[in-house]
Amino acid sequence: MTDAPALSATQRNGAAVGQHSLPRYDWREIARHNRKRDCWIVIDDVVYDVTAWVDRHPGGDIICTMAGDDASALFHSSHFRDVSGRLQQYRIGVVESPAAALVIDTPFLRTLKSRVHRYFRAHAVDYRRTRLLRPQLLGSIALFLAAWTAVYVFALYPFVVLMGLISCALVGGFAHEYCHSTLIHEGNRPNIKSLGCSVIWALVCPFMLEKHFQYEHLSHHKVPMDDAFDYEIFALRRVLRLSPEISWRPIFRYQQYYAPLVYAFYISTQVIVGFTSNFFNKRNLSSDISFWPQVYVMPAITVVFHVALPIYLVGVSWWIVCFVSYNVVWQFFTYVVAAAVHMTSERDTRSDDWAYLVCSRSVNVLCGNRMYDWLSGGFNYQIDHHLLPTIAREHLPRITHIVRQTCAEFGYPYKEYRSLGEYLRDHYRYLFRLGREGGQIELAEGAGPPFGARSD
Fold first, then answer.
1. How many other β-carbons are positioned within 10 Å of the β-carbon of residue 208?
2. What backbone torsions phi and psi does residue 75 show, to the nearest 5 degrees?
3. Residue range 339-345: average pLDDT?
4. Which of 53, 117, 219, 378 is disulfide-compatible with 80, CB 3.0–4.6 A?
């Protein structure tokens, strides 16, 4: 393939590392440097202290969300240009005992990034910034506040369904975009604009805590549907078997029947499990002073807006009915449009190619359908987004043909659903197969390269 350079930047970095004697750090030591003002990250088994770079990072605070952790997947998929020269000055050592890791900087990913970058340059598109969809977002937020007023001020309780649907749309169209630093020019670093976004988040995504969601979501980007990284697998593991790696339990025989009930409260479940397990402790967000407004102040705003004021206006009984109904609607539909896109078909568990696993564990759904595009907030362009997460959702339709073509050339899967019924049916079958006793999902014949193989 002529589109990709023969040797990637980080491969050159790795060669340079091998020529020098650098300090070696174990993961316990690396994990201790997990705050904005003490931020270490690992890329391709090389340790970088990027504390001095955080406030100047074009992507904002997203870089320190992965503090004390491996940021290889996000680094390679997020940067179109060679930034190795800037990165080298922050190199402080190497990982003492590198684990068997996925290969991320592959010919496929370099080719795809080169083609997409050339396309955006040729069409003068700032792919990191949302422009056209801002009026839609503002309209959705205004409509949400109007629906809230109709429910709690004028006692028009059926409007609680509209509130739920709008919150679902804003999880993808607003919260997810802000999480990836594509919503505002300054990224999500502390300033007046980002504080305003945090307030909106507290209103339209209640109890889906901003920084905790960002940490959980970026961990999911490392390896989708891997129980070691994907929090949706981890948080629901006691009630749903969503991965073959989850130990089978008798209750899973019936998961295809009760799964919708779990989906209706899955974000609440994630928050509870996150604070009752060690998942959120890994990042220790509450100890990071720079995140205190999001960790402490914004939940208080949520409580006032979604609990205290409604109880004052309509009383406890009606508040319970409306609050539960609202949460059921927005959490259920958010799961369907955002999580189930990774749970529809067989998965290749033998490949060590990160991009191949992303393609085999993700699908696109009803792309181009205006109503579904709005409701999903862009989550329906799942393959394209996971491969290239820094592209704002409004620009993803522009590059789907490039991603599809490149996948075809390299033999990577690219699954698109044009029917909502087919999509939901395949998800149901996925739950059924995993619910069988000892039910490992087998790799489909001819699905892709075996472990260690490469498409070139």
1. 22
2. -65, -50
3. 92
4. 117
